[in-house]
């Protein structure tokens, strides 16, 4: 009987330790919800000074849905960066990989870990992982543009 009690107790302790270890592990990896592409508007940037403004399109990975957004970036270091249109592309990541209307209408800021191989901007419902930027390296762009404010240009998604 004593052996049975010890075996049962050891089993409970092992299960508890495994559960505690699982609770302390990292959050599950985010999944791709789609691609966000922004093209800056040099003519609008002139109105707002050194603040780049862009028209953006989010294309969901599932279902072929699209939604338009407008973006305001962090102020540019020089006005030379604003003279020509720039194209910026991000992979949009969410916890479940699904896209929802207006989910990108948020303020995205640089992730704490700026040493990551692929720079990221983090919002409440999604993360933007920089894929490409015309005109400069992605690392330089991520350091120069630590914030993006997005607002939905249309109320819902279209096909």
From TrEMBL:
InterPro entries: DUF992. This is DUF992 domain-containing protein. The lineage of its organism: Bacteria, Pseudomonadati, Pseudomonadota, Alphaproteobacteria, Hyphomicrobiales. It comes from Methylorubrum podarium. Keywords: Signal. Residues 1-19 form the signal peptide.
């Amino acid at each position: 009987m004593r052996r049975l009690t010890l075996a049962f107790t050891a089993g409970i302790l092992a299960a508890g330790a495994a559960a505690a270890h699982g609770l302390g592990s990292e959050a599950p990896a985010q999944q791709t919800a789609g691609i966000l592409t922004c093209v800056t508007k040099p003519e609008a940037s002139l109105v707002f000074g050194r603040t780049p403004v862009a028209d953006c399109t989010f294309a969901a990975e599932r279902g072929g849905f699209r939604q338009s957004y407008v973006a305001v970036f962090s102020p540019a270091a020089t006005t030379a960066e604003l003279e020509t249109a720039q194209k910026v592309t991000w992979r949009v990541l969410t916890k479940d990989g699904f896209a929802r209307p207006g989910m990108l209408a948020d303020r995205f800021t640089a992730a704490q870990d700026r040493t990551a191989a692929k720079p990221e901007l983090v919002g409440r419902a999604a993360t933007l992982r920089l894929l490409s930027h015309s005109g400069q390296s992605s690392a330089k762009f991520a350091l120069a543009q630590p914030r993006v404010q997005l607002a939905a240009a249309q109320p819902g998604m279209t096909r």
